[in-house]
Design goal:
The chain has a single domain, classed as FAD/NAD(P)-binding domain, CATH 3.50.50. It is α/β, with parallel strands linked by helices. It has twelve helices and 20 strands. The strands form four sheets. Strands 4, 5, 6, 7, 14, 15, 16, 17 and 18 form a nine-stranded mixed sheet that branches. It has a six-stranded mixed sheet with strand order 9-2-1-13-20-19. Strands 10-11-12 form a three-stranded antiparallel sheet, with no helix packed on it. The chain starts with a strand and ends with a helix. The structure holds flavin-adenine dinucleotide. The site of flavin-adenine dinucleotide has 41 residues, from helix 1, strand 14, strand 18 and helix 11.
Length: about 425
Amino acid sequence: MKVLVLGAGVVGVTTAWYLAKSGVEVEVVDRQAEAGLETSFANGGQISASHNEPWANPATLRKVVGWLGREDAPLLLRWRRADPYLWRWVARFLLNCNHPAARANTDRIVRVALYSRSCLQALRREVELDYDQLGKGILHFFRDSREFDLASAGIEATTRLGLARRRLTAAEVLEIEPALASMGSSLLGGIYTPDDESGDAFKFTQALAAEAAARGVVFRHDCRILNLEWDKGRVSGVATSQGRLRADAYVLAAGSWSPLLARQVGVNLPVYPAKGYSATIPIADEAQAPTVSLIDEEYKMVYSRLGNRLRAAGTAELAGWDLTMAPVRSRNVVERARELFPGGADFAKAELWAGLRPVTPDSVPVLGATHIPNFFLNTGHGTLGWTMSCGAGKAVADIVCGRPTDIDMTGLGLERFGSLAGSLSDQLGQWLKPAK
Ligand SMILES: Cc1cc2nc3c(=O)[nH]c(=O)nc-3n(C[C@H](O)[C@H](O)[C@H](O)COP(=O)(O)OP(=O)(O)OC[C@H]3O[C@@H](n4cnc5c(N)ncnc54)[C@H](O)[C@@H]3O)c2cc1C
């Protein structure tokens, strides 16, 4: 069997790796000159099962209202009247802003993220990959007591799902990461997940692509996918800038561009780009720079130590497929890092970047089969594409090869979305149901 993987980001490359390990002939197609040059290029670097709160939850709704009109808001929605993808995405997002949906979505995120973490660990035992990996855990820290208590209340539920986390006092936070001392009394405490990890997703993607190529995977770069073709209910080929490519099966792993390609064969994917920013800053003083990967819950910023560099990343902007960097937002990423680690890095040398996270309305990726028998999905990983890449790649490879998956795939496929009209009327029915 030959499989064509569409996209050579971290998700496409892991999918190709696990397919090749199953003995399948694999070709990966990407418009870039190398693997990992789009959203997988300069992300926050976290393998973070702990970062499992879906964007759509009742608390976000309240916060978004408070952020309205603020150009530096952690989540910014730029209304684009002529963008039907955005409107449909927002409608589905609102449908997920309730406690039962948020709980179900958290369970799904944790399920994939924990599986993926174990697949990554197994992969490292199999091949040597050099990507500035650090296994020092991930530390979420808080300035707001209400936020801290709310997040702490979720520890027990995710512990039951197998995710070990613990609540820390401010003093305990500083024992784990002394570089946060500059926060003084504004640091209230933290939640620590010792088994989470960090590393450079781009280096990982490149290293794994090289291993996959050595095992026979063909990478076709500088090759733009123009059109997915279908015939007699199956995908019959892909028209590209390098001619028509054919295979027995096709896996769509084109990140934020996946919905634009999927619709060509009648598959509606509720995936929308959410622009995020990062800054990569050379370390200036080891003693003042963090070594543990961090999440600042107040500003929704993440910090990872990648060798002799500090990566600061965050913010989300729903503004279509546009990679233009808003100066105020990229400046903010650097300034937040400078406030926390004033002498730790050489901020004048910060390299700024923006990427488009492929986000679903429920923050759960879309994995597996479609109504087209030879067309499969591995996309929509949003804020956690690097975290989920190995597990999602392995699970989708199993599905393509017709094998049982290691994890339960319920709630992870496209079928969970149904029609938007149907979902809206179901929700309306719930609201109108007389209280017992
Ligand atoms: C600021 C920021 C911080 C983040 N931090 C983290 C983090 O700490 N941890 C984490 O787990 N995740 C993080 N993420 C999310 C993560 O980076 C993404 O989920 C992940 O990179 C998505 O990978 P992908 O392979 O699906 O997409 P991409 O990496 O975008 O790959 C898709 C590929 O498809 C190709 N493609 C698309 N259309 C075409 C076409 N028509 N023809 C040919 N090729 C095409 C592109 O060239 C690209 O290479 C972050 C994202 C951002 C923006």
